[in-house]
Amino acid sequence: EPTVRTELMEQIPPIAIFLQESRPKFPTAFFEYLMPIVVRYLTDVNNQVRKAGQEALLILLEQDLVAQSDIENKVCPILLDLSAPDSDDEYKVEAVNIICKMASMLSRTTVEHMLLPRFCELCSDGKLFQVRKICAANFGDICNAVGQEATERLLIPKFFELCSDSVWGMRKACAECFMAVSYTTSPEVRRSKLSPLFISLISDTCRWVRQAAFQSLGPFISTFANPSSAGLYVREDGTLSIRPSPQDVASCQASNNINFISSSTNVA
């Protein structure tokens, strides 16, 4: 019954955590028994079971419970098969979604060598706009996962394609992640390539694309600032934040000390 398999998948992460904590007693139980089940359920015929398997896999990766060998030899090959050009549409959409989500949890080498080539192919998928939209929505995360060199060499050309896609939702998704993409590139690429590209989005024929671009204008401009002097940086979740300068921290501490001394004097 699919409901039984789904329930089983929901129990895998807590069992895996228990086995990890009790590893001296069960040194190979997770790798021999549980991990093969998770991998197998990624291709289950029932979509609810597959969804539960995907969620379990992401939790296991987030908790750093999956060995690097299993990631490279078991998980990645399955995802590459599911996202292949001749794969079933539903499986392909699910596969690209989980590839994008797990990219930030894997090593840069694994992502660049095993998943990046397929991601670039999926960005140009002419059959399913849903696949391209997932790629566009997660483009910044993939850039962050592989770093500047791979971003400029392989991803920026694909980003240009998505920014000129015939589907306006694709262009809107690109506008929303523009800051994250820009943050990964060099100042020269930012100035010579991304700036003209952003102007095209902010002048788009679709008002939803223009609105998204205007909302990203400030964050995009912030990527031109010197982080050491401006204090701007991007958090792990992709949002822009401000790091207080040492002078501000010192000033705040001095103010707190004065307030503390004043309070102590009043009490006395």
TrEMBL record:
HEAT repeat boundaries on the chain: 115-154
Q: Which UniProt keywords apply?
A: Repeat
Q: Which Gene3D superfamilies match?
A: Leucine-rich Repeat Variant
* This protein's record includes keyword Repeat: yes
Annotated InterPro entries: ARM-like, ARM-type_fold, HEAT, HEAT_type_2, PP2A_Regulatory_Subunit_A
PROSITE patterns, per the entry: HEAT_REPEAT (PS50077)
Q: Name one GO molecular function term.
A: protein phosphatase regulator activity
List, alphabetically, the GO terms of the cellular component aspect.
cytoplasm
Name of this chain's protein: PP4R1 phosphatase
Organism the protein comes from: Nothocercus nigrocapillus
